[in-house]
Specification:
The chain is mainly beta. It has a single domain, classed as 6 Propeller (Neuraminidase). The protein has one helix and 24 strands. The chain has one helix at residues 2-22, and strands spanning 38-45, 53-59, 64-69, 81-86, 92-101, 104-110, 113-118, 121-126, 131-137, 144-149, 155-159, 164-169, 172-177, 184-190, 193-198, 203-208, 214-219, 224-229, 236-240, 244-248, 254-259, 271-273, 278-282, 289-296. Strands 1-24-23-22 form a four-stranded antiparallel sheet, with no helix packed on it. A four-stranded antiparallel sheet has the order 2-3-4-5, with no helix packed on it. A hairpin with a 4-residue loop joins strand 11 (155-159) and strand 12 (164-169). It is globular and about 50 Å long.
Length: 299
């Protein structure tokens, strides 16, 4: 009888051990000795001419960066928002390159057009002309936030206040997904899935584009905002707009690369220039964009 009790205890301990190993998602990657560690090293910082920069995107065809300036009020149609053009070394080329918008946030590029989310519409800019070509109204939207575009030109748009993701395809707007969302923000199309950083559920998830099934990759992201592919394959950078930048590893574990919350320097909708190993961070109310190199820690 004692032998059976001892065996039962051993089996129970083994079960608990196995269960705890499955809960790796969201844990700090520093717990795993074999995982490489990285850090961000500041490369440059722009002047403070921007007005609440919310999003950045690199245009490879023209080797420039576009910056959306929401200009203080994220939900008010005040007409004072604008898009800036900036070099990859931080020089502001044209502060008010395109105006006539209110609270521009997420940015996407496809076929020579810059797509801009603005409260309840997506503004399409002809990049060559530097002019607004079209305004796509999103009926029922409250505060559309980020944009991501797939290889076929399908435009995915998050509505943070209304818990929706809209799809613009072939000129038509559809409410693509609403179930299971909680203040969705950052979007990034990645093959057959749509990556999502949410402010409400405070997690980083993947949505299957075919089935729309949501799988949480990592949690405790807090005010999830921007998503970018890192220069290391299968690694992603995700921001908490309060000032944190997380490295998400392939197994879902994470580590904090940057934390500027005490300085009140935000970390909004980022982009990563792979060719230059350069992370671009718009800082909200510090009115700058800061660039960092992603490097492996020594030792």
């Amino acid at each position: 009888m004692i032998k059976y009790k001892i065996l039962s205890v051993v089996l129970l301990l083994l079960l608990v051990s196995c269960t705890s190993k499955k809960k790796k998602t969201g844990e700090d990657a520093g717990d795993a000795a074999a995982v490489k560690k990285f850090e961000l090293v500041e490369a440059w910082k722009t002047d403070t001419l921007f007005r609440v920069p919310e999003s950045v995107i690199y245009d490879r065809d023209n080797d420039v960066v576009y910056v959306s300036n929401l200009n203080y009020e994220p939900r008010v149609k005040d007409g004072n928002g604008f898009i800036s053009r900036m070099s990859t070394s931080g020089e502001i080329l044209d502060l008010k390159w395109v105006e006539d918008m209110s609270s521009p946030k997420g940015l996407g590029i496809y076929d020579g057009k810059l797509y801009v989310s603005d409260i309840d519409e997506v503004i399409v800019i002809d990049i060559t002309k530097g002019e607004i070509e079209e305004r796509i109204v999103i009926e029922g939207a409250k505060m559309i936030n980020d944009i991501s575009i797939d290889d076929q030109g399908n435009v995915y748009v998050s509505d943070s206040d209304n818990n929706n993701i809209f799809l613009i395809s072939n000129g038509e707007v559809n409410n693509w997904l609403s179930e299971g969302l909680n203040a969705p923000n950052g979007l990034l199309v990645d093959g057959d899935r749509l990556l999502l950083a949410s402010m409400g559920s405070q997690d980083f998830a993947a949505i299957d584009l075919a089935t729309k099934e949501i799988n949480v990759i990592s949690d405790s992201i807090y005010a999830g905002d921007g998503i970018a592919r890192a220069s290391i394959p299968d690694h992603f950078l995700v921001t908490d707009w309060n000032g944190q930048v997380f490295m998400i590893y392939p197994d879902g574990s994470k580590t904090i690369l940057l934390d500027t919350r005490e300085e009140e320097t935000g970390a909004a909708d980022i982009d990563f220039i792979l060719e230059k190993n350069l992370l671009l961070i718009p800082t909200f109310y510090k009115h700058t964009v800061i660039a960092y190199k992603l490097v492996e820690k020594e030792g």
